[in-house]
Amino acid sequence: MPRTALRICPLCEATCGLTLTIEGTTVTGARGDRDDVFSRGFICPKGAALGAVDADPDRLRTPLVRRAGRLREAGWEEAFAAVAAAVPALVAAHGPGSVGVVLGNPNVHTMAGALYPPLLLKALGTRNLFTASTVDQMPKHVSSGLLFGDPFAIPVPDLDRTDFLLLLGANPLESNGSLCTAPDFPGRLKALRARGGTLVVVDPRRTRTAALADRHLAPRPGSDALLLAALAHTLLAEKLADPGPLAAHLHGLAELPDALAAFTPEAVAPACDLAPEDVRRLARDLAAAPTAAVYGRMGSCTTRHGTLASWLVDVLNILTGNLDRPGGALFPLSATAPAPRPAGPGKGFALGRWTSRVSGHPEVKSELPLAALAEEIDTPGEGRIRALIAVAANPVLSAPDGHRLDAALERLDFMVSVDPYLNETSRHAHVVLPPPPPAQSPHFDFAFNGFAVRNQVRWSPRAVPLQDGRPDECEIHARLVLAVSGLHGSAEPSAVDDLAIRSTLDRATADPGSPLHGRDPARLAALLTGSDGPERRLDLMLRLGPYGDQLGAAPAPGALTLERLRAHPHGIDLGPLEPRIPDVLRTRSGGIELLPAPIAAALPRLREELAGRPDGALVLVGRRHLRSNNSWLHNVPALTGGSNRCTLQVHPADAARLGLVDGGRARVTADGGSLDVPVEVTDTVRTGVVSLPHGWGHDRPGTRLSVAAADPGVNVNQLLDGRLLDPLSGTAVLNGFPVAVAPLPPAAAAAPPPLS
Ligand SMILES: Nc1nc2c(c(=O)[nH]1)N[C@H]1C(S)=C(S)[C@@H](COP(=O)(O)OP(=O)(O)OC[C@H]3O[C@@H](n4cnc5c(=O)[nH]c(N)nc54)[C@H](O)[C@@H]3O)O[C@H]1N2
Ligand SMILES: Nc1nc2c(c(=O)[nH]1)N[C@H]1C(S)=C(S)[C@@H](COP(=O)(O)OP(=O)(O)OC[C@H]3O[C@@H](n4cnc5c(=O)[nH]c(N)nc54)[C@H](O)[C@@H]3O)O[C@H]1N2
Ligand code: SF4
Ligand SMILES: [Mo]
């Protein structure tokens, strides 16, 4: 008899609640959970294919260990013993920096990814940390760190209540949203319009999101910071700025007009390729709307001025009085965030506390740019990375210059991948540790509840029992921590969780501001429920969080505990977002730093962009497909084919000028190399812009991706050499970089593409 089980979908940031149909231990179907307090039954084609994602026969079921140069199936004990034999010895011989850590995107979609990487980094003591953030949202962390003193204080647009949404460089109709967790983002945008609100989309492509909008502006890629600066300039020049009650918390408002003086609508118009009157009208409409929110994502972040654009997004929210008010952009309050503290000066946010060894890139949020990983491995000298631990990361495809990284990984003394697939990156590992598929893993959204358009909390236990003898991903991480700490075989994985619990409780009981001050940490630890270490840690975080019972110190009737959450399988709604200023501010001044020094120092570089680009110059932007997910869903037949293809989209006018034909082939060349690609002529991209999706290029040997390898596509990031970064955040410029495109004769199409 089939049964059903609830599972929050881990495949994108929308976190939809799913009802899985299960026969035996196989997921045979998935539909939206109509009773889910947040997603209310919404599902997309990826969620509907969760069963196929779960059951992919290419998923690894046992660890792989390299012996005599070849990866072979091995037992778990053997795999962890291999890590224990290699890593501590390397650290002893060459120092903690000889081990690098790469954390990829799925870490924000697993419980293990939230709970263990900080412990792993602490155990290793390395500063060589690289994550997907520096090919993604790092500019937003930097702007929030500088403005509000906390890189995680990221305001989200109040989608369900706003009257006016200005959305830049995001395509939630395909991506389902990012840094704005909103199941059924498309429905929420339609509802905004249905209630008389206005949606303005800024995107060089006429995306499905743009097609839904009241107004679509298609500027030149990379010019968002200029456009946003001109909007802010107009608000200030036309006396439309009105921060309202925020004014009491603002520092630097008086200096802002001077800093932005150069960016008039007329001055930015040529570089943006927009009419000045359209820019002015947008500023006036934004100011006139009863409530409004400005929201920018990938397309505004991963550009040359990504941090400035991210900063200006919130400058506009502030100048229009929309930051921190219903209908504007608000700070969510996640159930596992630390309980709010009284307002007051904080530690602030510093950049560049150390720099990378080879190129001297400043650290940001204790991370170095992912684009610099290859050079940190392949450049000889003291401090070189000799071993790498990659957790849920496929940087050979997701980071600039995969060929160089590919070659660099081959030179490592030791590499571990925690990954369910043998893919372009994990094929270099000495040990591959595969986590079980989603249905066998419990789920809690530690990361995305902090960016959700409604405060709510949900937890999914395992839908299907763990396969015999298989550790879940939390246990894999815990055992990895033990192995690198020299404790393999001498401590249980639960000791890692106990230590984490103990250190949190030690801190809380020693803190005079905590309701737990003066209590006995050991007795408090004994109060925690949960059947294993990660569950007890979740219980601890919920109970010490803003809605928690403070372990009995605040036993309100509805106070959160894991037990209470368990009793609510469809989740608990915690209400709409509420104003949180000043409590959320952690700057040294205790206020909002509207014009922080690193930003002011970067503005002259933005002014140089006013000169514009030479006529006829082509730039490349990315795109996402609804049935894709970065580099790792191309192996699921239900999610491939149709329009989900790796083609170069070109505007008809550019195609005619360059001699390209639909269905023909072209060679794209940029700093990092050349790619031969199929051409798709479409007027959904603007002139001067071509578009190629990322996450493709599955043609390397030694992988186990039978479906993906049959239609490999090309790796767009091979066009980059890793040098083009947003300097403030170290984020790679993935959108709006210059390329040359030339037609290929049909005969040449048969020849293999040049490697670089
Ligand atoms: N040109 C260009 N490049 C881009 C982007 C772009 O828009 N354009 N987007 C960037 C963005 S936003 C991101 S986030 C990065 C993503 O970059 P990465 O994080 O490097 O890549 P992903 O494809 O998300 O997958 C990472 C790995 O996680 C594995 N994985 C899947 N599920 C699990 C799991 O449950 N546990 C574990 N341990 N592993 C799992 C997959 O097999 C895969 O090997 O790519 C970036 N690269
Ligand atoms: N289906 C699907 N969903 C996903 C993913 C996926 O791979 N597939 N990946 C997930 C991840 S890791 C992330 S981070 C999110 C990202 O989600 P989004 O932020 O929505 O990212 P994209 O869909 O890449 O949309 C970026 C848009 O920016 C536009 N753009 C490019 N350059 C510029 C520019 O200079 N200015 C402006 N204004 N626009 C520009 C592009 O044309 C594109 O439409 O999606 C997540 N969801
Ligand atoms: S929108 Fe995202 S979370 Fe929802 S079903 Fe689709 S992939 Fe899963
Ligand atoms: Mo991402």
Topology (elements, then pairings):
Layout: E1 3-8, E2 17-23, E3 26-32, H1 45-48, H2 50-55, E4 64-67, E5 70-73, H3 76-94, E6 99-103, H4 111-115, H5 117-124, E7 129-131, H6 138-148, E8 156-157, E9 164-168, H7 172-175, H8 185-194, E10 198-202, H9 208-212, E11 215-217, H10 224-237, E12 250-251, H11 256-259, H12 265-272, H13 276-288, E13 293-296, H14 298-301, H15 306-319, E14 329-330, H16 373-378, E15 387-391, H17 395-398, H18 402-410, E16 414-418, E17 431-433, E18 443-444, E19 454-457, E20 459-460, H19 473-484, H20 493-510, H21 521-526, H22 533-544, H23 562-566, E21 572-576, E22 592-593, H24 597-608, E23 618-621, E24 648-650, H25 652-658, E25 665-670, E26 673-681, E27 689-691, H26 706-710, E28 725-726, E29 731-732, E30 737-744
Parallel strand pairs: 6-7, 6-15, 9-10, 9-13, 10-11, 12-22, 15-16, 16-17, 23-27, 24-26
Antiparallel strand pairs: 1-2, 2-3, 4-5, 4-17, 8-14, 18-20, 19-21, 23-30, 24-27, 25-26, 25-30, 28-29
Helix pairs in contact: 3-19, 5-19, 6-15, 10-12, 10-13, 10-15, 12-13, 19-20, 20-22
The protein binds ligand MGD (2 copies), iron/sulfur cluster and molybdenum atom (MO).
